[in-house]
What does this fold into?
Amino acid sequence: MNEKETHKLIGKLSRAVVFLTLIVFGLIITILVLFAFQKPVCGVPDEEDQWICGTPSLNPNYGEPAFEKGESLFNQNCASCHFPHKDMTGPALKGAVQRGEENAYVGWIYDFIRNEDSLVQAKDSYTLKLQNWHEDGVTWSHRSTLTNEEIDDLFRYVDPVFPY
Ligand code: HEC
It folds into this structure.
């Protein structure tokens, strides 16, 4: 093998190495992208799966008229600022009834949704704390006209474990 041929061979080999490296990188990136867009596995249904996997049938209230009503009440009145399951402009609403009962009093949710200002004026400590919930200081004075029954229906949709 003369020098010219050796050079040629080295050239060929290094091109092959670059080519193989590119293929391996390509494969790794493809696998990563596939993983990133993979749908979550909805094996063991728990209360969160309704939102993670988009299967409302996992909500025990699914199929009840209350669920349907709650869904449209939520979409019409709250969905612009709230997700049921993750924070947006306002906090995730799942568990909000329970948080209200634990941090304020039973029935707090109705007062808060219909007349938050009165709770602020009464210096209800949990309501005051919520005023600082948004890191940019965004607040919203809830002043809904929903009845207690409608609010219950709304949470039957939003919160798979409501009523507790
Ligand atoms: C314009 C935006 C907006 C709309 C519409 C809105 N909210 Fe809110 N919500 C907020 C913000 C912001 C907060 C944070 C506290 C605050 O500002 O009062 C909040 C807080 C809450 C909380 C307290 C959450 C907790 O963790 O205890 C509840 C409950 C709530 N909203 C329910 C509702 C319901 C039910 C509706 C629909 C009837 C609704 N909100 C409509 C913006 C909104």
About this structure: Residues 77-78, 80-82, 89-91, 93, 96, 99-100, 109, 112-113, 116, 130-131, 133-134, 138-140, 142, 144, 146, 154 surround heme C (CB under 6 Å).
